Amino acid sequence: MWRRINSAARKGTGPGRGDPSAERSGARQAVIAVSNVSKAYAAGFKALKNVNLDIRRGEIFALLGPNGAGKTTLISIVCGIVNATEGNVLVDGHDIVADYRAARQLIGLVPQELTTDAFESVWATVSFSRGLFGKSANPAHIEKVLKDLSLWDKKDSKVMTLSGGMKRRLLIAKALSHEPNILFLDEPTAGVDVNLRRDMWQLVRSLREAGVTIILTTHYIDEAEEMADRIGVISKGEIILVEDKIELMQKLGKKHLTLQLQHPLVELPAALAAYDLQLANGGTELTYTYDTQSERTGIVPLLDRLSDAGIVFKDLQTTQSSLEDIFVSLVKDAP
Ligand SMILES: Nc1ncnc2c1ncn2[C@@H]1O[C@H](COP(=O)(O)OP(=O)(O)O)[C@@H](O)[C@H]1O
Ligand SMILES: [Mg+2]
Q: How wide is the angle at C-alpha 71 spanned by C-alphas 70 and 75, nearest 5°?
């Protein structure tokens, strides 16, 4: 559905999309390179501390962090809205300061805050955005963007008459008006309803299929878990981790085995002290936590020990820790 929109992106400076080997190496190539970037705001507050980050061509990268971590500041620097105090950023090889126009033209930004020109029509707003990038008018492209975002029947409506969800889609239309091949979405689903959230995710996936690199910020862990190829965690202005999502979940994931006991226990028998066990629910539940990476889970000997200690269980389940658990433990341990 989005394929045609980004034909320009695919003809761009990157490797040919049709060639699988070029595609593979292209996926490894940084389309954005952030080097040693720090930001001190006027009052001296350090919002970013020596950030280094490479975004790979064609990936969906989720920048995950709590409010105030520095996500919007980092995006604003890459998009040239905020100046870095130190460091530099290359966008497809173009320095964002020395070669601002070339760098900025490659980027679409969907900002966190809804700011839209209330009296203009949807069509005029999106067309104007394109003009800002010095691109010649392309009504066919604008039409396609509005249709893909289900805004076509609103093209003549004034922005002020749109619902909140439509305004958010309009921001995306504006960001796509100049056919960028990199799209930043700053908290795209903060405060939106479940349906719009699903639509956004779908849209992001189809853009990626069309060859667009997507960087989204979120403080919703499930969003990163659902969408991202790679995840960067930012906390207090520092990138504390960048990992492939699946590897991250495997590496840091823990599993829990929960046993529902036939008879409640007041305390854990000393014979079981060697195991990472916890009693819950008034002693009726016993939870064993183990590493998903280790060769042996220890479950079989544990069950033997339980049996030896006369502990009988009615039922058992295993659960795996979510990205949320991992995230909470990472941010908690951050300096
Ligand atoms: N213009 C500004 N002046 C001073 N401090 C700012 C400014 N913008 C953001 N900050 C501060 O920088 C930190 C990071 O903010 P921000 O990048 O918006 O975080 P996030 O997007 O992760 O919530 C916060 O502590 C915020 O208060
Ligand atoms: Mg923000």
A: 115
